[in-house]
Fold these 2 entries.
Entry 1:
Amino acid sequence: QVQLVESGGGLVQAGGSLRLSCAASGRSFSSYAMAWFRQPPAKEREFVASISVSGANTFYADSVKGRFTISRDNAKNTVYLQMNSLKPEDTAVYLCNAEQGGPPTYYWGQGTQVTVSS
């Protein structure tokens, strides 16, 4: 099992940047595919970005492509989300997700709030 703790959220003006971190504890972080999701106010949770076990493959939602970058450091058991050119519509609680095995088991962090002011 893995425990996930997000950090790095906050209030930023439109056009600004934030870097989110997700620290994982427990065993075998390098065997988990990782992802970021977000839940805007009064809306459904949505996919943001994912990264493969090795970090070689990434995938992004169209709404963040070209602005957000997901990365991971397996030595530090951490996955990152660099968010640039932020827009008010990026306001949401951002959650870290870990996926392992097949059939997959999913783990979630508690989330970190990102608020983008116009």
Note: The two ends are 40 Å apart (CA to CA).
Entry 2:
Amino acid sequence: QVQLVESGGGLVQAGGSLRLSCAASGRTFSYYAMGWFRQAPEKEREFVAAINWSADTTRYADSVKGRFTISRDGAKNMMYLQMNSLKPEDTAVYYCAAGATTIYEPDYWGQGTQVTVSS
């Protein structure tokens, strides 16, 4: 059974940092693009960041560029999102995703982890 499990969410003050982790199991995701999406209350889910299978290409939403860093460890089947200088507008449920062809049409989703940034 393929699973993506996020962890590391929580409550943090504005300006603080959090590190999200995504643990993949059930298959190897070595050749999958992986990424993070988020969904705030009453808003549609949006793209946050992505990393290709070889970890040499990353992409970020304009709203998080310079503050968030995505990384992955293929040997451990793990992916991470380091979030710095957090803002209240970053408050959302963050989802891990994996796509064989493109991260913008993921084949697998995690269950999500809540990130709340207080002002």
Note: The chain has no helices and eleven strands.
